[in-house]
Amino acid sequence: RGKPVIGLTKEDFEIYEDGVLQEIKYLSSDPVPLSVVIAVDQSGSLKEFFKDVKKAGWLALNALPPSDEIAIVGFDNEVRISTNFTTNRQEIDAVLRKMLNTGGGTNITIALRHSIEELKKTGGLRRKVILFISDNYHSVSNVEHLNRVPFSEKDKIGESVIRNEIIVYNIKLGAALSNTDPASADSGEELIRSLV
Predict the structure, then answer these.
(1) What does pTM read for this prediction?
(2) Residue 54 belongs to what H/E stretch?
(3) What is the pLDDT, as a whole number, of residue 42?
(4) CA-to-CA dists, residue 159 to 71, 88, 156, 163, angstroms
(5) CB of 81 closer than 8 Å to CB of 99
């Protein structure tokens, strides 16, 4: 009733695939450390909200256990900041403090691709996570039809997330929160929603 059940073993579960009972070889409730990319949108569309963007980064940083390693990817229409993974919270805090709003466009696809590539470099038994802090407004061109994320690109990113077992979380901030325009799907919103 709303509380986790503890003390379960593999004998407490049955898993079926195509109607055939499968053997559970391993089950653990031990916490698994994470490799987390905090992807921070530095674009002009978030200029008024950039304090909130940085605050979201700090809240995430402070919520993660010390064993989790973190990297920062800052982006606008290109990747502006890319740190190595570290468990040193002071290093990550310093990067967030120095981070500025660049005023550029927003290329969501390049930020996601870069974040995925960084996570592919991590090893061990860590779970891979992207925390994507953005208004999800994809704007890499002044020509409206070029602001759309091509379907082939959405598919490639989605396949890469699945293949590399990456979990994507999204903190959406900015004026786009009140945007109910169906065309927002063209802005990257549809891509982000398909990943989380």
Answers:
(1) 0.77
(2) helix 50-63
(3) 92
(4) 22, 31, 5, 6
(5) yes
Q: For residue 178, what are its two tokens? A: 């009140």
Please give the pLDDT value at position 52: 92
Question: Residue 166 is inside which H or E element, if any?
Answer: strand 166-172
CB 142 within 8 A of CB 54: no
pLDDT at 180: 46
SS3 assignment for 95-138: HHHHCCCCCCCECHHHHHHHHHHHHHCCCCCCEEEEEEEECCCC
SS3 category, 66: coil
Closest CA to 113 of 155, 169, 57, 64: 155
Residue 110: the pLDDT is 92
- Please tell me the predicted confidence (pLDDT) of residue 132: 95
Q: Which residues of the chain have pLDDT under 50?
A: 142-146, 180-186
- Which residues have CB under 8 Å from 61's CB, separation 6+? 38, 70, 89, 92, 93, 96
The pLDDT assigned to 56 comes to: 93
What is the strand order of the sheet 127-134 is part of?
79-82, 69-75, 34-41, 127-134, 166-172
Amino acid at 191: L
The three-state secondary structure class of 162 is: helix
Q: How far apart are the first and last CA of the chain?
A: 26
What is the distance between the alpha carbons of residues 84 and 96, in angstroms, rounded to a whole number?
Answer: 14
